[in-house]
Amino acid sequence: MKRQALIALLAFAVPASGGAAAQEIVSGISQDVIQITSNYTGTDIVVFGAIDRIDTPQNRNIVVVVRGPDTPMTVRRRDRIAGVWVNNDAARFTGLPSFYYLASTEPIDRVAPPRALARYGIGIDYLLPAGVFSHHDPLPFRQAAMRHLKQQGLYAEMPGTIDFLSETLFRTRVPVPANVTRGQYNVEVYLFRDGEVVSAQSTPLFVDQTGLERRLFNMAHNSPLAYGLACVFMAMLLGWISSVLFRRPV
Amino acid sequence: MEIYLPVAEMSVYWLVMIGLGLIVGFLSGMFGVGGGFLMTPLLVFSGIPSTVAVATTLSHVTASSMSGALAQWRKRAIDFPMAGVMLVGGVFGTLAGIWLFALMKKQGQMDLIVALSYVIMLGSIGIIMLRESLQTLRAYRSGTTVPARRVNHPWIHRLPLKMRFRQSRLYISVIPPIAIGFAVGALSAIMGIGGGFIIVPAMIYLLRMPTNVVMGTSLAQIIAITAITTLLQATSNYSVDIVLALLLVTGGVVGAQLGVRAGAKLRGEQLRLLLAILVLAVGAVLLWRLVANPADVYSLYLEPAA
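The joint structure predicted for all components is written out below.
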C-alpha cells in the first residue's frame, strides 16, 4: 500500500516538476463498483481517456494498469518422498497484488527502461514483493507464483490492446474474472514520453459482494452458530420433505 | 447457469452441483452410507477449496441420511440406544478432529493427510468387504451353506460396562461402540464424511449387529454426528457454504430416495460387493493422484481477504 502511495505521488509530481501547465492525460472507467451477485461470472470494465497534446506515436505510449488489493501468497513445492508427492518446501510473499492487468500501446520493454518500470511497478516482471519468507532461493517460487496467477487469469500483460478512437481519444477493455478478491482496486493510466512518465492518473475501483451474497457472507462470519444451525436445519428439512414426497409410490 | 458461492467465493455451474448431489445421493440411498467419501473428493476435483468441500459435504450427508433414516425408522430398523452410545464417543472424536484439522492446516499438510487417510481407510475397508462378500456369494452359488458368521471376538466380551441392546439382540460392553463413535467423529471432521463406510462394517464385523438394523442405526448416528460437525466447522473455520449445501442437498435427497428403491431390489451380499468395488475405485483414484507425477510441482495459495 505504501509503495502504491509513493507511485501515485511520484506520478503526479512528474508533470509539475517537468513544468507542464495542465494535466496531459484524463481518464475514466465505465463503472467504479463491481458488484458480485449470485450470477456474477466475471465482467469487463472499459478504461477510456484522452491525451490533450498530439504527439508523434513513435515516442508516446499509454499504459493502463489495474491492480487488485495486496494479498499474502504462499507457494509450496512438492517433492517425491517414499513414492508420494509431499509439500516439502514453501515460500511466502507479501505485498503482491491479488490482481494485475496491464494494457499498453507497445510491449513494455519498448515503453521505458527497466528502472522506470520498476519504480512504478509496471509489468509483471517488475512487481517486487514487499516481504519474502523462504528458507531457500525464492526465485523459482516467485516464478511459479507468476505462472499460476497468469493461468488463473489474475495476472495478464496485454501489449497493443489500447484502441485509439481518434488521435487523442483511447480506450481499452479490462476483463475481470470471476475469481477475483474483494476490496479496493486501482486503475492507473500512465502517459510515457521518451521513456519517462509525464502524466498519470489513478482511479479507485471497488469490488464487493452485494445483496443476499453479502448477507450470507456476513452471517457466516458474524453469527456462525445461527448460520450453522440454518444449514443443518435446511439439510434435515429437505431430507424429511423428500422422504414424505417419495413415500407413496413405493 | 452459473451461481456465485458466497463462502467459497467462486462461481460454479449450479446444474453440475445438483447433478453431483443426485448421483452421490443415489449411491448413498442404495448402500445406506452418507456418501461423503465420494462427495468430498468430487468437490475438490471440481475446484472447490478443500476446507469448504470438507465442511459443506457434511450438510449433504445430513440430508441424504435423514431421508434414508426416516425410511428405516418406518420399518422400525433403528437401534436408538446403540446410536446414542456411539454418539457419546462421536462428540469427543469430532472435537479432536476439528483440533487436528486446524493444526494440519497450519502445517500446510492438510491435503496430504486427507488424501493419505482416504487411501488407507478406503483401501483396507474395501479389501475386507470385497473378500467377505465374494466368499458369501461363492458359497451361495455352490449351494453350500454360508459358514456361521457368529465368530465372536472374545476380547470384546471381556470388556466391562455391559449394556443390553434389545433391537440388536446384543449384550455387550459400551466401550467398542464408543470407540467406533470416537474414530468416526474424528474422521468426520478431517475428511468431511459421515463415516458410514466405517460404521457399517464395524457394526457387522466387530459388534455383530443384525444386518437389518445396521443401516438405520448407522444413518441415525451419522445425522447426529454430521450436524454437530457442521456447527463446529461453521463456528471455528467459517468454511460451510450454504448455497453450495443447498444445491448438493437438493440433488442429494432426490437421489437418496431413488437409491433406496434401487437398493431394495438387490441382495445384501450383492450390495456389499458393489460398495466394496466403489470404495476401492475411489481409493485407487486418490492413490494415483498421490503417486503420479503432478503437472506442476508448485502450488499457489492466496490468503483470503480478512
